[in-house]
Design goal:
Chain A: One of its GO terms (biological process) is fatty acid biosynthetic process. The complex is a heterodimer of chains A (about 80) and B (about 450). Chain A is mainly beta. Chain A has no helices and eight strands. Chain B folds into three domains: about 100 residues, Rossmann fold (3-Layer(aba) Sandwich); about 60 residues, Dna Ligase, domain 1 (2-Layer Sandwich), CATH 3.30.1490.20; about 240 residues, ATP-grasp fold, B domain (D-amino Acid Aminotransferase, Chain A, domain 1, 2-Layer Sandwich). The chains are: A mainly beta (about 80), B alpha+beta (about 450).
């Protein structure tokens, strides 16, 4: 298992914009470097990427919720 | 309609600024706050606080219904929107008026007109405001017509979204073979971003300066309060502003000022507004960019050189329908410079830096003004923009003002969050700034090096 941690404080979003589909769904295959979400801090958006390849087991933060540095955003089952 | 209780629908330094002038004018004040701002510096200054929603701006400062409800519940009779958020939202202005409240700003019709760039451009042309060669309105016609117009205007040129603004929705075209494709892309992007596919075409000015004229009107009397230069920008966001705009030929300055007043008169402007121009230092020509129908972040430099309290004037015009100012009463003294202090780390590509301010020391003295939204011990939330405060200085001439700003920045100590103070020190001490050889993309392309961000955005 690999945890994807938030590098920043801010608001976490699973979608590139409110009217778009989420970047990834639970159970999807992800590759290293793939974007799984965005963090908005002071009107700037930073991409959240997974460092591990595998299956996205699940998100630990809901869309639109606040995150702090080091918070676990999602967990990847490495393969 | 006479105002007795004002709802301030904003936060941070501008809320503090408005609350202070409103109090001086004898008004009772109510501040709309999000749950995150209940203990803010601004909240402490208001007579009452109305919590309008949770921290994210979409649910609080951008929630028009909650703001109008708060105004009614707290017995307000007027709403001041500040800048940003809903300040240039005509639907909100209309909603405020329909609720029987006074809107501190121009009419919703004028906000609409100026928010629509091609209509604003047409109004500017009708008022005699100089504009850049281009489509002078929506870009229409078949491919051959577009190619012919572009050839007449000359390259490089820009395609701009009519509904864009603040540097968004602009694409640069350097060669004819890229033109038609870029127009298509710009239309698609404008549709997706702004819900309006209208675009227009203009000549592109390399190394342009951003100059603007502060205007004021009450529907009958219209006047200007001089000009400002806001050319030190990063990603189209202003960082340092000054008044008056330095090194403008007298004829250019006069034409800018006079035509800005003519545009205010044409649209029967009420309140304060700003007509923005792009100045081409090679051709010595200024041309219309857009009009901002609100108080601006950089208004204090105008206040320092004119002695006019712009917020007090906004409140007087909204309350009485009249200004007592006349053009002949407006005099200009000395030079003023403003630096915006943002909670961003210039060492880490301007990464926002929320956190708790552990130390906050400002310079003191009669030539300094600090418009701040924070105190030592305050937590800077990650939800809103990163502007913490503005440092403004005044002196008898530009050289002394710039020197004084350098000293003011050196006396400013902020700890606990990273700020742009070190970058500001570098900017105001740079010989390029001293010589007025800077331009709107100078920070990105020359000072910090590297290509301008975004690739296609000038």
């Amino acid at each position: 298992m690999a945890e994807i941690q938030s590098p920043l404080p801010g608001v976490f979003y699973r979608r590139p914009s409110p009217d778009k589909d989420p970047f990834v769904q639970d159970g999807d295959r992800v590759e290293a470097g793939q974007v799984i979400g965005l963090i908005e801090v002071m009107k700037q958006f930073s991409e959240v990427q997974t460092e591990s390849a595998g299956t996205l087991e699940g998100f630990r933060i809901d869309d639109g919720d606040m995150v702090h540095p080091g918070d676990v955003i999602a967990v990847v089952a490495e393969s | 309609m006479a105002i007795s209780t004002l709802l301030v629908a904003n936060r941070g330094e501008i809320a503090v600024r408005i609350l202070r002038s409103a109090r001086s004018a004898g008004l009772r004040t109510v501040l709309a706050v999000s749950e995150a701002d209940q203990d803010s510096m601004a909240a402490g200054l208001a007579d009452a606080v109305a919590v309008v929603g949770p921290a994210p701006a979409q649910k609080s400062y951008l929630n028009a219904e909650a703001l109008v409800d708060a105004a009614r519940e707290h017995g307000c009779d007027a709403v001041h929107p500040g800048y940003g958020f809903l300040s240039e939202n005509a639907a909100f202005a209309r909603r405020v008026q329909e609720a029987g409240l006074t809107w501190v700003g121009p009419s919703p019709e004028v906000i609409d007109l100026m928010g629509h760039k091609t209509r604003a451009l047409e109004a500017a042309i009708a008022a005699g405001v100089p504009v850049l060669a281009g489509s002078n309105g929506p870009l229409e016609g078949d491919d051959d017509a577009v190619l012919a117009l572009a050839r007449e205007v000359g390259y490089p040129l820009v395609i701009k979204a009519s509904a864009g603004g603040g540097g968004r929705g602009i694409r640069l075209v350097r060669a004819e073979e890229d033109l038609l494709r870029t127009v298509d892309t710009a239309r698609s992007e404008a549709g997706a971003s702004f819900g309006d596919t209208t675009v227009y075409l203009e000549r592109f000015v390399e190394r342009a300066r951003h100059v603007e004229v502060q205007v004021l009107g009450d529907g009958e009397t219209f006047l200007h309060l001089g000009d400002r230069d806001c050319s030190l920008q990063r990603r189209s966001q202003k960082i340092v502003e000054e008044a008056p705009a330095p090194d403008l030929p007298d004829a250019v300055r006069e034409r800018m000022r006079d035509s800005a007043v003519d545009l205010a008169r044409l649209c029967r402007y009420t309140g304060v507004g700003t007509v923005e121009y792009l100045y081409d230092p090679v051709r010595h020509e200024a041309a219309f960019i857009e009009m901002n129908t609100r108080l601006q972040v950089e208004h204090p430099v105008t206040e320092f050189v004119t002695g006019v309290d712009l917020v007090a004037e906004q409140l007087r015009i909204a309350s009485t329908g009249r200004t007592q100012l006349r053009q002949e009463d407006i005099t200009f003294t000395g030079h003023s410079v403003e630096c915006r202090i943002n909670a961003e780390d210039p060492e880490r590509n301007f990464l926002p830096s929320p956190g708790t301010i552990s130390r906050l020391d400002w310079p003191e003295g009669e030539h300094y003004r600090v418009d701040s939204g924070v105190r030592a011990g305050d937590t800077v939330a990650p939800y809103y923009d990163s502007l913490l405060a503005k440092l403004i200085v005044h002196a008898e001439d530009r050289g002394t003002a710039v020197q004084r700003m350098g000293a003011a920045l050196a006396a400013t100590h902020i700890e606990g969050v990273r700020t742009t103070v070190p970058l500001l020190q570098r900017l105001v001490l740079d010989p390029v700034f001293a010589a007025v050889e800077h331009h709107t993309t100078w920070i990105e392309t020359e000072l910090l090096g590297g290509p301008p961000s975004g690739g296609s955005t000038p």
